[in-house]
Design goal:
heterotrimer; A alpha+beta; B alpha+beta; C alpha+beta; A: alpha+beta; Aldehyde Oxidoreductase, domain 4; Aldehyde Oxidoreductase, domain 3; 3 domains; 7-stranded mixed sheet; 6-stranded mixed sheet; 28% helix; globular; C: alpha+beta; Ubiquitin-like (UB roll); DNA polymerase, domain 1; 5-stranded mixed sheet; 5 helices; 5 strands; 15% strand; Carbon-monoxide dehydrogenase small subunit (chain C); 2 iron, 2 sulfur cluster binding (chain C); Beta-grasp_dom_sf (chain C); metal-binding (chain C); metal ion binding (chain C)
Chain lengths: 806, 287, 166
């Protein structure tokens, strides 16, 4: 060996594989303005569509007069429900088993509902057109409060469901009832409550908010009449699902539908579902024979496509007097708005809310969820969350703090006492999940030591005394959150969307020169898949990540996959990538054995090639094997080097983390300051620590926004009062706190590379940390629970209600 | 969100602008920085048939000293205000407040004339101008007149401007050397209007408030001068009881609307706190 | 509505076009000039995705009419790279410090940060945060954007960038 021979470390580093802070491939184009987002797509002759929307939350549509609109220069067509009925598309199925109006059919059920679609030569003419469509409404009483939705005299919202006593998820109790979903053993749980020394009960609400990615939902639909083919460019987190949905509802042959998701400007769950805009643009293209673009504006985005949360969770915990939990009982009133358009796996009307036992060893638990209709926008999407997991984590983390307060016990101590122990994994929860792995005590103690938790509690005690003496008007709160997520939907045994199992996929093709292309069924919206997926392949097969091109989003070329949401990409597609790479590697080993003239079993993989055991100089690099795959494979072997894997995960993964928020609140104004925020995440094996840290920063920022003010609020007459970035709290760099990140590593035992997923953890874990900090700050004044969002005026009101402000 | 159609005019002089506005009548609107008007047009809440862009009028730009006053051309941007040494040294409260308006991009385009003239109760400069005793020069078909800021605001988006008139400059008396000042603005985030804000300009003599003027932003359909609150402060050393009294006097004239920033009671309450805090901070910087 | 002829300089090149008076500058840049790096995020002047540099000012191009830019000198994200086509210090900083994720706010952020550093070549963290407060990012939580700008500031001044200790 001469001095030029790279060391093992150098060879390994040259791959930029797993564990490396690899700089992102995507950034080269994004930093130069060369991304290709949907609104950048411009096709010859392209038209533009825009919606006429309802000013009323609940009204009968008496008449739509488009005669003046059609006189506007550039306006070509006005599509209404009547038009859509001719192609049987006035209504569309939702992912949750309900149906939804595409355009108002007889009545409108929420403010800003789509009423008519104006198609024009450009967006200016389309906007002129919508202002000339005259719609005559007969207002009906609006139903805004979900707690009144099942009153006997509540207005009937869904006349289309008249007489239907059951829906997709079983019996309906009332004309505004959608479903009831129960999990767990009620008798055992009730028995635990009957015996309990200590009980707490609180209605914990998770307000309505919105994912609001910076790029709104948009599409370009182009129907080729000659070929009978429909091409759709869209902001789709799940392009294959969109293709199948379009095939099913538009009755088009699936091979003639081409769905392309180009670069996406953030998703956060907003871009999973199918929206009226997509249907209308497609129909408009079929009607006009021209490509049609639809681009949602921000007000439309906030008020019409896919809110998140609106869960009202009445939560009870039973415990012994020394703080051991014995039972959990939760009833959720779920406000779904006008249509049940949740983007959950089809059999899960409340998503995976039954992860609500959290990180704790509850011997008994029972959960019931009632879904109801109100005159609000449809949705219920997983905003940076795996299907209602953030609601569940908020519910249990808040409730544990309430229990600690009742027991006069430190909330950290209560958690440590009730954690599932490392030796209990795989752990079967009382609500039916099998937790794969965890070491909660280590994570919690690391958080407490790193932050100096005991000293912070001491400081808090001193400040409280000072407050009582009138020396300060500031109160201090410590918000702990120890969350367990459930992500990676999911195993075909319990997860499907419209009957399609929630596997994911990867296809890898290695080229002769030692480069390759990999395609997946996922779709990055900022997660950096082009960077990280190549890192998995690099480590698995020993080809530098720079030599692997990753491509997603084109349904014609990518293998079928269920897309990117619910932190499922790494747990499911990440596994598919590793499995496809291992198929490549297995074939490569046979080729290497043939070329090195040894038995396969005599070879060992060594970073970037195969080496003959005991003969270190006999080595064949993967690069050379790639070449050999195209000219000298063993007799009987097919040439080429490619593989496909469709991965059906055996279980979900269960990332967890320990967060601490230190907050100071001025009781006179309600103004808060996040003094410190520490986030320890355990997402199993870490593929790219730089990207993980970025995901945590972003998720915490969204959690901060949600907990501290980000709300879609309706007034009592059904008007949205927070419909723009002025009132919908979207923090800037000035308001956003500084984030400290940390980690432990507990690999998933069932995942090929041990990875669990991280994108949503900081949102799921962050919200309770902020809310617990606020609640902890006020607790010594006598409060047990203050509802989110904790914006300034509500903090002041809490202080006032507690007598701290006169 | 696309504005309706309009004709665009870019006069080169105030006289031309005035002529255009009076000839075109109610269908015409002057356009300054555009950060209030253009979003309204995009929502089609404003649909002027003519826009008279004032950016072509050189005479509307600039900051100059005129005796004991600083005269600021209406088309002077917030960014230019922030860059002005004259403003920073003679009336630092303007500098402080300009930094709290919207965000950097908006400040490059947003003008003092637009801010004070459109009558939006959320704008910061009007209360400041009242506090500083500024007057506005209005030029119209009937000639030129000066109106005190304190007399200019009549209701939300309703001012003393007559049809065809434009506000061409503001004239601000330079406060006494050694004066104390503070603009306390509570807002939810950068880019938000004030939940409540208070401007204080005072002088101290022998540890007591000698003169005092207090203005209030976004707690009423117009900006307010809190005369009684200022009276309560004068002659005192701003002890706790005085601050309370001044805050209460200010709250008594507030009539904010309930909105996403909070209910009426809260907005008044924090309005009082802004007054107390501004008084304290102003006294602390007074010499 | 009659169209108006406009001319301006964009990224160093003279351009012209016919626009309605109501044509927003951002649409002129994206649709007429085909430069799609400048994005539209909120349409209400809050998010800053549409920020371009006009005559030395950072401007939200969704709140200005194209006719108002007559004769002006505009730089968009497409004009940010070095003359030899390599990434500018800011573009490099965003990549090195992981200052972007979905990339949608990035053009506006970079154009804004460019002007910030021209006016204040060595800003403090607080000055950077204030300086980019007209730009919303939904992905990064801003922390790495701040670092990206610090990286560029250091690189432009020829000093080695060291991340502040946590």
């Amino acid at each position: 060996m001469n001095d030029m021979t790279p060391t093992r470390e150098q060879r390994s580093a040259a791959l930029e594989g797993m564990g490396c802070k690899r700089k992102r491939v995507e950034d080269i184009r994004f930093t130069q303005g060369k991304g290709n987002y949907v609104d950048d797509v411009k096709l010859p002759g392209m038209l533009h569509g825009d919606f006429v929307r309802s000013p009323h939350p609940h009204a009968r549509v008496k008449k739509i007069d488009d005669s003046e609109a059609l006189k506007v220069p550039g306006v070509l067509a006005v599509i209404t429900a009547e038009t859509l009925k001719t192609v049987n598309l006035a209504w569309m199925p939702t992912l949750a088993g309900d149906v939804q109006m595409v355009l108002a059919d007889g009545k409108v059920l929420f403010q800003n509902q789509e009423v008519a679609f104006v198609v024009a030569t450009d967006r200016y003419a389309a906007d002129d057109g919508i202002n000339k469509v005259i719609v005559e409404y007969e207002p009906l009483p609006p139903l805004v409060d979900p707690f009144k939705s099942m009153d006997p005299d509540a207005p009937v919202l869904r006349e289309d469901l008249a007489g239907k006593t059951s829906g997709a998820h079983g019996p309906r109790k009332h004309h505004n009832h959608i479903f009831e979903w129960t999990v767990g053993d009620k008798e055992l749980t009730d028995a635990a409550f009957n015996k309990a020394d200590v009980k707490i009960k609180e209605m914990i609400a998770y307000h309505r908010t919105h994912p609001s990615p910076l790029e709104t939902c948009q599409c370009v639909c182009s129907f080729d009449k000659i070929k009978g083919e429909l091409t759709i460019y869209g902001t789709f987190q799940a392009p294959h699902v969109i293709r199948t949905v379009v095939a099913l509802i538009a009755k088009l042959p699936e091979q003639k539908i081409h769905v392309i998701a180009p670069d996406i400007g953030g998703g956060f769950g907003n871009k999973v579902g199918a929206y009226p805009g997509y249907i209308c643009a497609a129909v408009a293209s079929i009607v006009t024979g021209k490509p049609v673009k639809w681009v949602e504006d921000r007000i439309e985005n906030l008020t019409a496509t896919s809110f998140a949360r609106d869960y009202h969770m009445t939560t009870e915990i039973a415990a012994t007097k020394d703080g051991k939990v014995t039972g959990l009982r939760v009833h959720v009133l779920a406000d779904h708005g006008a249509f049940d358009a949740c983007a959950d796996p089809s059999k899960w009307p409340a998503g995976f809310f039954n992860i609500v036992t959290g990180s704790y060893d509850f011997p008994t638990a029972h959960l019931a969820v009632d879904g109801v209709y109100t005159n609000k926008a449809p949705g219920g999407v997983a905003y940076r969350c795996s299907f209602r997991v953030t609601e569940a984590a908020y519910c249990i983390e808040r409730a544990m703090d309430i229990l600690a307060q009742k027991l006069n016990m430190d909330p950290a101590e209560l958690r440590l006492k009730n954690f599932i122990k490392p030796e209990q994994f795989p752990y079967h929860s009382a609500l039916g999940w099998e937790y794969d792995s965890g070491d909660y005590h280590t994570a919690m103690r690391k958080m407490m030591e790193t932050t100096g938790y005991a000293a912070l509690r001491k400081e808090q005690a001193e400040k409280r005394e000072a407050f009582k003496r009138g020396e300060t008007r500031e109160i201090m709160g410590l918000g702990i959150s120890f969350f367990t997520e459930i992500v990676g939907a999911g195993p075909s045994k319990n997860c499907d969307i419209l009957g399609i199992a929630m596997f994911d996929s990867c296809e890898i093709r290695m080229h002769p020169t030692g480069a390759g292309i990999a395609r997946m069924g996922t779709k990055s919206q900022g997660q950096g898949h082009e960077t990280t997926w190549a890192q998995i392949i690099a480590t698995e097969i020993g080809i530098p990540a720079d030599n692997i091109m990753v491509e997603e989003g084109n349904t014609d070329t990518a293998p079928y996959g269920l897309g990117t949401y619910g932190s499922r990409s790494t747990p499911v597609a990440g596994a598919a990538i590793a499995m496809a790479a291992r198929k490549i590697k297995a074939k490569a080993q046979m080729i290497a054995a043939y070329k090195l003239e040894v038995h396969e079993d005599d070879l060992e993989f060594d970073i970037d090639g195969f080496r003959v055991k005991g003969l270190p100089e006999k080595f064949m690099s993967m690069k050379d094997i790639c070449w050999a795959a195209y000219n000298s494979v063993p007799p009987g072997m097919e040439p080429g080097l490619e593989a496909v894997s469709y991965y059906d995960p055996p279980n979900m993964t269960y990332p967890f983390g320990a967060y601490l928020c230190v907050m100071d609140i001025d009781v006179d104004t309600g103004v808060y300051k996040v003094r410190r925020f520490y986030a320890l995440d355990d997402c199993g094996t870490r593929i790219n620590p730089m990207i993980i840290e970025g995901q945590v920063h972003g998720g915490l920022t969204e959690a901060f926004a949600i907990a501290m003010g980000q709300e879609i609020r309706y007034d009592e007459t059904g008007n949205v009062v927070t419909g723009s970035f002025m009132d919908f709290f979207m923090p800037t760099a000035v308001e956003t706190p500084h984030w400290e990140t940390d980690f432990t590593v507990t690999p998933s035992p069932h995942h090929p590379i041990g990875a669990k997923g991280v994108g949503e953890s900081p949102n799921v874990g962050g919200v309770p940390a902020f809310s617990n900090a606020v609640n902890d700050a006020f607790s010594f004044l006598g409060s047990t629970h203050i509802q989110m969002p904790h914006d300034f005026w509500r903090n002041w009101k809490a202080a006032k209600d507690l007598g701290a402000v006169v | 969100m696309i504005p309706g159609s309009f004709s665009y005019h870019r006069p080169a002089s105030v006289a031309d602008a005035v002529k255009l506005l009076s000839d075109l009548g109610e269908d015409a609107r002057p356009l300054a920085g555009g950060h209030s008007l253009v979003p309204m047009m995009k929502l089609r809440l404003a649909t002027p048939a003519h826009l008279v862009d004032l950016h072509g009028i050189a005479a509307l730009k600039g900051i100059r000293r005129d005796g004991s006053n600083l005269v600021i051309g209406a088309m002077t941007t917030q960014h230019e205000l922030l860059a002005s040494g004259d403003v920073a040294t003679t009336m630092p409260i303007l500098h402080e407040a300009a930094l709290l308006i919207a965000d950097p991009q908006v400040r490059y385009r947003g003008t003092i004339g637009g801010n004070v003239a459109n009558g939006d109760p959320g704008n910061d400069m009007p209360a400041l101008m009242m506090t500083l005793g500024a007057s506005y020069r209005l030029e119209g078909p009937g000639g030129t007149r000066d109106v005190a800021a304190a007399d200019f605001y009549q209701g939300a988006y309703f001012t003393a401007l007559e049809p065809g008139e434009i506000l061409t400059s503001v004239s601000v008396p330079v406060p006494a050397a050694g004066h104390g000042y503070a603009y306390e603005k509570l807002k939810r985030k950068v880019g938000d209007y004030a939940t409540a804000a208070a401007a204080v300009v005072l002088t101290m003599s022998g540890g007591k408030v000698a003169t005092c003027s207090i203005g209030l932003t976004n707690v009423h359909e117009t900006p307010l001068l809190a005369v009684d609150a200022a009276k309560a402060a004068i002659g005192t050393s701003l002890d706790a009881a005085t601050l309370k009294k001044a805050a209460a006097a200010a709250e008594a004239i507030m009539a904010p609307a309930a909105d996403a920033r909070g209910p009426v009671e809260y907005r008044k309450h924090v309005g009082g706190i802004m007054v107390a805090r501004a008084l304290q901070r102003a006294a602390a910087v007074a010499k | 509505m009659a169209k108006t002829h406009v001319t301006m300089k964009v990224n160093g090149a003279e351009v012209e076009g016919l626009v309605e008076p109501r044509t927003l500058l951002v649409h002129f840049i994206r649709e007429n000039l085909g430069m799609t790096g400048t994005h539209i995020g909120c349409e209400t002047t809050h998010c800053g995705a549409c920020t371009v540099d006009i005559d030395g000012m950072s401007v939200k191009s969704c709140t200005m009419f194209a006719v108002q830019a007559q004769g002006s000198d505009i730089t968009t994200v497409e004009g940010m790279a070095n003359a030899d086509g390599t990434l500018s210090a800011l573009q490099e900083g965003f990549r090195m410090m992981h200052g972007l994720q979905c990339g949608f706010c990035t053009p506006g952020m970079i154009v804004r940060a460019h002007r910030l550093l021209k006016e204040n070549p060595a800003p403090s963290e607080q000055e950077i945060r204030m300086g980019i407060s007209g730009n919303i990012c939904r992905c990064t939580g801003y922390q790495n954007i701040v670092k990206a700008i610090q990286y560029a500031s250091a690189k432009i001044s020829g000093v080695e960038f060291r991340e502040a200790a946590e």
